[in-house]
Amino acid sequence: MSASLRTARPGFWSIRGPLSRQHYWLLAVAGLVLPLAAWWGIATFGGIEKVFMPSPSAVWDRVATWVVEDHLSADMAISIYRVTAGWALSAVIALPLGLLIGTFRPVQAVLEPLTDFIRYMPAVAFIPLVMLWIGIDEGSKIGIIFIGTFFQMVLMVAEDVRRVPLTQIEAAQTMGANRSEIIRLVLLPSAKPALLDTMRVTMGWAWTYLVVAELVAANSGLGYAILKAQRFLQTDKIFAGIIIIGLVGLITDQLFRLWHRKAFPWMHLK
């Protein structure tokens, strides 16, 4: 066989080419360490006041103080509860509603334009209404996170269901399946991998609404701590809160990815 007809081995920069686990983790660590090093260099040698750019060591000291003196574990627990409750409430309603929109065109015609319209409204604009309707207790904070994630989730679920190939539905109909059986045995099993990815993505959105949610008469939580630190120009605590939220979100995202690999192993074969 001539050299021109041989199949070229995928290179390091080939499109969707293979990457060994060792190389993956090496690059992942570099992607985390290099920004940290750049931050340290700017804070140390950039001539910037600490109130604008605290050093990584100052942020670490603030985290240690937060743990010992300011009940970081309690702030993390209440924020995780608020985000999880708001996201879970969205999922409980959005999954069946998105399934209906993605399955039946009349339901799509009635609900999709309305959902599209509402999803562009900023969640922060609903704070006065949420306080008026729900009050200022935990329900209002969960409500803001619900509003921020629900309408996006509905449309994403509907799109996941619509991506199921029509040939699968037609094959089930040819075999005599009724509508209920097609939904249970064809649409849901085929859409499950995409639905789990949608849940993972919207969980990330739920975390982005945490600070907004804790604007509503909160006296605890990571978002509340960030807002309180802003008033007293505690920039190191602002950095610490942002980083902690990012770490919790990263752990959550990795748990979703692990769940996806365990539930659908055939999609992760090399």
SSE topology:
Elements: H1 21-45, H2 56-69, H3 72-103, H4 105-119, H5 127-133, H6 138-162, H7 166-174, H8 179-208, H9 210-213, H10 222-231, H11 235-263
Helix pairs in contact: 2-11, 3-4, 3-6, 3-8, 4-6, 6-8, 8-11, 10-11
What does it look like?
It is a single chain. The protein has 270 residues and is mainly alpha-helical. The chain has one domain: Orthogonal Bundle (MetI-like fold), CATH 1.10.3720. It contains eleven helices and no strands. It has helices spanning 21-45, 56-69, 72-103, 105-119, 127-133, 138-162, 166-174, 179-208, 210-213, 222-231, 235-263. Helix 3 packs antiparallel against helix 8 (179-208). The longest helix has 32 residues, at 72-103.
Keywords:
270 residues; 11 helices; 0% strand; mainly alpha
Cα gyration radius (Å): 24 Å
CATH homologous superfamily annotation: MetI-like
Uncertain segments are: 1-5
Query: How many angstroms separate the termini?
Result: 27 Å
Number of helices: 11
Indicate the overall shape: flat
Strand content: under 5%
| CATH architecture title | Orthogonal Bundle
Based on secondary structure, the structural category is: mainly alpha
How many extended strands? 0
Order of helices and strands: HHHHHHHHHHH
Largest sheet: none
Helix content: over 70%
CATH class: Mainly Alpha
Q: What is the mean pLDDT?
A: 88
Number of domains: 1
CATH-assigned fold name: MetI-like fold
